[in-house]
């Protein structure tokens, strides 16, 4: 534990039998407690004033990856989750396990929604637990009953998992960090609709094309299954899911409102672009061209403004 103002170590605790995988301070500043978890499944509570471990909580049977506290009751409940596919709800005052919620997937991040976000999912108590992990989709549970109250639909043909999820109360967003190095922002008050994204890694750029009525955006094909459309003004990015394998080529109609992509999944797709539409409706797949038997490595849309056809070339030599 470090004093960040003065830059020195204030505490050095030992006791875990494995790597420490999660740390969290109790929200009550007068409590001065630190909670840690490790890959041995143990959760330890450290009293910073007394400089010792005051409780060891045993229930998890695998790596514990996340810890959070309820704030509306002064932090009287703690939730923990990990790769044993359960979320545990603990009574903080009595240091006992109150409820185990089976998730049927390893969980990398868990937390509690607050205020309007919790109420929007029908919880009377306001105790709504969010979690994300191996499935790459957010799920919500009622902390008091253990029932799942919402499950997000996974992005079309997405292969990513969630490695972390944080809750931004002021913006009412859940931000998920994905295994393919993207940050996905979901609205906690709008049924977890994707609001925006920050792209973290492009790898190899394979093709680009201007899109938008005034060429205000650039469509980019990289070593991923997602089509990426960047704003030339501020480099904000939209991700369009649909292809099952890497996109190998991209082209745009002169009008700037139609994009064609070719992929290693043996198909080409046609997308309609309207960057003024709400998120998730800005780039819409309207057609999938099937018929090739190998990777489609080239695509071209007709140049005439009144011509609406495209040509594809493939590794199958057609």
Written overview of the protein:
The chain has one helix and 28 strands. It is elongated and about 75 Å long. The strands form eight sheets. Strands 3-4-5-6 form a four-stranded antiparallel sheet, with no helix packed on it. The protein has a four-stranded antiparallel sheet with strand order 7-8-9-10, with no helix packed on it. Helices cover 2% and strands 49% of the residues. The mean pLDDT is 92.
Quick structural overview:
By secondary structure, the protein is mostly beta strands. The protein has one helix and 28 strands. A hairpin with a 5-residue loop joins strand 12 and strand 13 (139-142).
Characteristics:
mainly beta, 4-stranded antiparallel beta sheet, single chain, 318 residues
Largest sheet: 4 strands, antiparallel
Computed structural class: mainly beta
Number of helices: 1
Order of helices and strands: EEEEEEEEEEEHEEEEEEEEEEEEEEEEE
- Rounded to the nearest angstrom, the radius of gyration is 24 Å
> How many strand elements?
28
Our measurement of the CA-to-CA distance between the termini, rounded to an integer number of angstroms, reads: 64 Å
Numbering strands along the chain, what is their spatial order in the largest sheet?
3-4-5-6
- Helix fraction bin: under 10%
Overall morphology = elongated
Strand content: over 45%
Low-confidence stretches: none
- Mean pLDDT metric: 92
């Amino acid at each position: 534990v470090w004093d960040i103002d003065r830059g020195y170590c204030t505490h050095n605790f030992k006791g875990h039998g494995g790597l420490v995988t999660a740390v969290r301070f109790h929200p009550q500043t007068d409590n001065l407690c630190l909670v840690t978890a490790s890959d041995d499944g143990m959760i330890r509570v450290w009293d910073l004033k007394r400089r010792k471990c005051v409780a060891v909580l045993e229930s998890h049977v695998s790596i514990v990856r996340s810890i959070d506290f309820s704030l509306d009751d002064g932090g009287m409940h703690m939730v923990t989750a990990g790769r044993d596919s359960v979320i545990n709800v603990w009574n903080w005052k009595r240091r006992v396990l109150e409820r185990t919620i089976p998730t049927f997937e390893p969980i990398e991040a868990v937390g509690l929604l607050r205020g309007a976000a919790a109420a929007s999912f029908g919880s009377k108590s306001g105790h709504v637990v969010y979690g994300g992990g191996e499935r790459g989709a957010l799920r919500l549970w009622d902390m008091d009953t253990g029932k799942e109250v919402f499950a997000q639909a996974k992005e079309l043909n997405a292969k990513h998992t969630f490695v972390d999820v944080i809750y931004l109360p002021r913006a009412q967003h859940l931000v998920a960090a994905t295994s393919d190095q993207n940050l996905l922002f979901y609205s906690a008050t709008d049924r977890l609709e994707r609001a925006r994204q920050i792209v973290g890694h492009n790898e190899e750029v394979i093709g680009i094309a201007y899109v938008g009525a005034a060429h205000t955006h650039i469509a980019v094909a990289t070593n991923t299954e997602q089509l990426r459309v960047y704003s030339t003004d501020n480099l904000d990015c939209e991700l369009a899911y649909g292809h099952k394998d890497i996109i190998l080529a991209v082209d745009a109609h002169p009008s700037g409102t139609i994009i064609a992509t070719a992929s290693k999944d043996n198909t080409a797709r046609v997308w309609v672009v309207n960057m003024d539409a709400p998120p998730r409706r800005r780039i819409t797949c309207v057609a999938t061209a099937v018929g090739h038997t190998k990777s489609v490595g080239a695509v071209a849309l007709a140049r005439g403004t009144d011509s609406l056809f495209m040509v594809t070339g493939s590794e199958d030599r057609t």
